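the three lines:
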Amino acid sequence: MEWTDEAIARLRDLWSQGLSTAEIGRQLSITKNAVVGKAHRLGLPSRPSPIRSRKAKEGETVEPTPRRKPAPRKTAKEVKAAADQTSVVSKKPSSGAEKPKEALAAASVEEKKKEVEATSHIVKKVVEAAPQTVKAKVVEKAVEAPAKVVPLTPPKPAQTSRPLPPPRFLGSIDRSTRRGPACCWPIGDPGTPGFHFCGATPLSGKPYCAEHAAIAYVKIRDRRD
DNA sequence: CCCTGATTCGC
DNA sequence: GCGAATCAGG
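prediction for all of em together
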C-alpha cells in the first residue's frame, strides 16, 4: 500500500468519522490490519476497543490486557514452503478456486452497495456501530443518500377465532444441523394443514431470508403507480 | 461463528 | 514503515 498524502488524509477523515477499521479498509481497498496499523503509526486516537475496554477503575491499574505470548509467527519462507507442499501433494479436491482477495473485497463492496440501495437497514447498522459522538453525523449523512424504504407488511394471515396451530418451520426439519434463526415469511393459509413459515436462513439482522426480504422490503419508488 | 480494535514482529 | 497473523472481547 502506497500511503500517499491523499490516502492518509482519507484514512484520517474516515477514522475521525468513526467508521470501523474494516469499513475504512473496504473503502480504501486495503485490509483492516493495514488501516489500524497505519492509524496506530500515525498516532490517531484509539477507538473504543472491544478487548481493552476493561473498566479503567479509579486507581486500579488495569493491566493492559496481558496479551499472551508473542505467538510464533511463520516466516514468509515457511509459509511459502508449506504452500508449495500442499499445492503439490494434496491440492484440495473441489474446495473451489479461492477468490483473489481483491475479488473478495470487490464483492464485499458490491454487496454493501446493493444493501444500501435496497434498504436503510445498513444505515442503522452503521449508526449502531459508530461511537455516540459521531452517530448524529452518520445519520445525517446517510439519510440523504439511500433510497427510502418501506417494509411492507407480509401477507396478513386471516385471523380466525380459534387459536392457530403451532407454526411449523421447514427449518425445523434439519434443526439438528442448523439451529439458527428462521425466515418467518408465512407460506400458505394459516390454519390450513400446509401452512408453515419459510424457515430458511434469514439475512443478517432481518426476519426474512434473502428471497422474502426482497419482497418484504420494497423501495418506495418501486411501489408508485 | 460473526464482528470489533490492538499488538507483534518478519519483511 | 508496512501489514498479516494473531489475540481477545462482544
